[in-house]
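Example complex used in Figure S2.
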Amino acid sequence: MFGGLFVGYFIYHNMYPQLFLEASTHLDWKMGAFNTGVLILSSWTMAMSIHFIQVGKSSKANLTLIITILCGLVFMVVKYFEYTHKIHEGLLPGRLFTYEQATQPLGLYFGFYFCMTGLHGTHVLIGMLLMVWLLIRNMRGDFSPHFYTPVEGVGIFWHIVDLIWIFLFPLLYLIG
Amino acid sequence: MAQNHGHSHAKASQDEWGEHHVVPATILNNVMWALIALTILTVVTAKFIHLGAMGPIVAFSIAAVKAYLVMAYFMGLKYDVKENRWIFSTGFIFLAVLFFFCAVDLATRITATSTL
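Predicted assembly (292 residues):
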């Protein structure tokens, strides 16, 4: 899914470089960089959760799982501020684009922006729900050094979510 | 009772597959700091140093390094069997195929004739 969006972005970026250049100025790279740091931290705490369960320190894993969930929450809160600012300014996808000071029809860019970050954000939310499930199971004592497969599975999901953002961040926020 | 049953069942299958490698905590810590440093590097090279056309290439190269670190250490692919690494990379290989053919189409058909 993300691959197709990346390729589509690449094609239209090459066809309309000026449009993409102007549109990307409306993104705050500091918020994007902060969110990148938050997700890297959450990937680390997720890996630490698996590590703690592997070495038999399941109670510490509860703490790192909670921190991972909180990092996801912080990420979504920052996203919420970014989105509300854009909606307020009229920087909307496609035909809904109403920002007056634009010199070009930037709706094309914001179509990509909202689709890619929205799809990614949905996966962040799904990951957070899965981690709450893991937390409940871990508190019940379901996991041990001999069985922690669901934790690894959710961990892989979360690392891939982080991976996508590692590419999404420079693509949307930094390439001007 | 349920835990014992799960324990013995899991242990039986674990003996079949072999023990999972435990990535040491210090390595996980170091990888996290490396990722943070590379993020800072990405931002600095993109925003504060003007690289022109090389900008996107540098940014994505750094992103590729970060992706490798996450996949190798956080996901434990470095310590995993070769088959799993190949299975994981097939996704990226097919993405590259998609990318390649779209780029060829773009370069030969669209930019050559300069219409949509």
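The interface with chain A takes residues 3, 6-7, 10-11, 14, 20, 22-23, 25, 28-29, 31-32, 35-36, 39, 42-43, 46-47, 55-56, 59-60, 62-63, 66-67, 70-71, 73-75, 91, 94-95, 98-99, 102-103, 106, 110-111, 116 of chain B (CB under 8 Å). The first helix of chain B runs from residue 2 to 17.
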